[in-house]
Amino acid sequence: MTAATHRAAVLCGLGGALPATAVPNSALAAELDTTDEWIRTRTGIRQRFVIAPGEATSDLAVAAGRRALESARRTAHGDRETRGGGPGKDAAPDVDLVVLATSTPDHPCPATAPAVARRLGLTGVAAFDIGAVCTGFVYALATAASMITAGAARRALVIGADTFSTILDPADRTTRAIFGDGAGAVVLRAGDQAEPGALLGFDLGSDGAGEELITVPAGGSRQRSTATPPPERDRYFTMQGRAVFNEAVLSMSKSAETLLARIGWRGADLDRVVAHQANVRILRAVADQLGLPEDRLVINLVRVGNTVAGSIPLALADAAADGTLRPGDKVLLTGFGGGLTWGSAALRWPSPYVEPVA
């Protein structure tokens, strides 16, 4: 690194993971008061994946993390083709930080990241969780990148993973239609801002006044301190859809515009926008706010639904594997979630090895 460049976190590995069980809209229609058409026209989603009994968020996080580490190893060796092959044993052994974004940890205590790190053979490294719901991956990415640029880490594994099927009301057709389980991960290494894959900037924000728009009312210290059993419905995830729609479009658009101005890009400069995969109408509205045609959007919610913190990295993995993301593309990431929280990041796309997310 020369005096003319600046230390940066560089994306050098990418992977995703989905459970084995796909749930098409027709399966929900057979169980709930809904139809395939109702779900597709309101969300754009045709199917989602759910974990099997006994599986947990950490299982998906480990699978995605292992693939991202293998991607980083093969990228470093110049193997950038998309093809099959199992993970190598020497995948990125110098990772010294694991950050896991999740709202569905394996346990309320302790954090899930240390167990994920151990299962990946990364013993002794710093590992912690971040909870920002659907914005979690962007928050985790910014945290890991900051630690790298500050010199506190050399290489980081950043994972977004959630299993919202475990906190949904089985009788709620709306939330069950929207959410699926999944995980995505990236590897960041220390580099400089001139490199492809360098993270060029972030914009993060929150507004706690909207905390009740996206929430699980029971299970935390506020409810538990009352020593009163909560109503059954309070154990499940709830969302005020119309208000969330409006807030999501406004917050992601403003965050994206703020970041673009900060790094000297215009909306028209963007080759791809990878937004949180919540709802196809939200994605289209964000593109419209940025003055972009719909074909600049990366959309994979059709087959995976809303995977919460796994959403953005899974979309990246799909788009990289099918060639939608090309080396040199100017890429914007943007998300919105409970809290309320929002955030954006920008980079020029590198050329990592990546395998399709089955």
From TrEMBL:
Signal listed as a keyword: yes
Keyword set, alphabetical order: Acyltransferase, Cytoplasm, Fatty acid biosynthesis, Fatty acid metabolism, Lipid biosynthesis, Lipid metabolism, Multifunctional enzyme, Signal, Transferase
* Molecular function GO terms recorded: beta-ketoacyl-acyl-carrier-protein synthase III activity
Q: What reaction does this catalyse?
A: malonyl-[ACP] + acetyl-CoA + H(+) = 3-oxobutanoyl-[ACP] + CO2 + CoA
Basic and acidic residues bias: start-end ranges: 71-83
Under the heading Gene3D superfamilies, the entry gives: 3.40.47.10
Tell me, what's a Pfam family for it?
ACP_syn_III_C
What EC designation does it have? Answer: 2.3.1.180
Region ACP-binding: what ranges? Answer: 277-281
Q: Where is the active site?
A: C134, H276, N306
Every Beta-ketoacyl-[acyl-carrier-protein] synthase III N-terminal domain range: 128-208
Q: Specify where the region named Disordered lies, as residue ranges.
A: 71-91
Which pathway is recorded for this entry?
Lipid metabolism; fatty acid biosynthesis
InterPro entries found in the cross-reference section: ACP_syn_III_C, ACP_syn_III_N, FabH, Thiolase-like
Q: Which residues form the signal peptide?
A: 1-22
Domain Beta-ketoacyl-[acyl-carrier-protein] synthase III C-terminal as annotated: residue spans: 260-349
Question: Main location per UniProt?
Answer: cytoplasm
Q: Where found, per UniProt?
A: Cytoplasm
This protein's source sits in the domain of life called Bacteria
Q: What does this protein do?
A: Catalyzes the condensation reaction of fatty acid synthesis by the addition to an acyl acceptor of two carbons from malonyl-ACP. Catalyzes the first condensation reaction which initiates fatty acid synthesis and may therefore play a role in governing the total rate of fatty acid production. Possesses both acetoacetyl-ACP synthase and acetyl transacylase activities. Its substrate specificity determines the biosynthesis of branched-chain and/or straight-chain of fatty acids.
Q: How does it assemble?
A: Homodimer.
| Record text about domains | The last Arg residue of the ACP-binding site is essential for the weak association between ACP/AcpP and FabH.
Per the similarity annotation, which family is this?
Belongs to the thiolase-like superfamily. FabH family.
Q: Which NCBIfam families match?
A: fabH, PRK09352.1
Provide the protein name: Beta-ketoacyl-[acyl-carrier-protein] synthase III
Q: Which gene encodes it?
A: fabH
